[in-house]
Amino acid sequence: MDFTVVQGDIADQEADGLVNAAGTSLQMGSGVAGALRRGANGPINEKAVSKGPVELGGVAVTDAYELDAEYVIHAAAMPHYGNGRATSESIRTATRNALEKADELGCKSLAVPILGTGAAGFDLETGAKLVCEEVWQYTPTNLSDVRIIAYSESEYRTLATIAERF
């Protein structure tokens, strides 16, 4: 499986599946979720919320609407309750479940953000390491191209440095 690091907006990626950095309610607010919601230009938020809430680490799937993908896989790395903060375990579980769901859907390509960082409060470097470890350890059935997406140049540099270790 090809494992690459890309700088850019996940909503601009072309892939069979795009992973949304979701909370357990699946409500699409800001950050990655907001970018995907705007890019989809359809009722993606309503469809996502109708499939929730999900357990911490759980996933749900919606159509990608006008995004250049077939599916959006909403991976709940942060709780929409309590302190709202992601944990190492929630990031690992959400990443692994997103990979498994993409495989189950027959996706060959998948774009994944650094789950659990940003609004979920987990530090970027540790979150990137956890996501990269899960992707690296995953044995795919269908997936042949997994891209980890970093939005800014500084996030990209951090992610690229971490990904080089794998």
TrEMBL record:
<feature type="domain" description="Macro">
    <location>
        <begin position="1"/>
        <end position="166"/>
    </location>
</feature>
<dbReference type="InterPro" id="IPR043472">
    <property type="entry name" value="Macro_dom-like"/>
</dbReference>
<dbReference type="Pfam" id="PF01661">
    <property type="entry name" value="Macro"/>
</dbReference>
<protein>
    <submittedName>
        <fullName>Macro domain-containing protein</fullName>
    </submittedName>
</protein>
<dbReference type="InterPro" id="IPR002589">
    <property type="entry name" value="Macro_dom"/>
</dbReference>
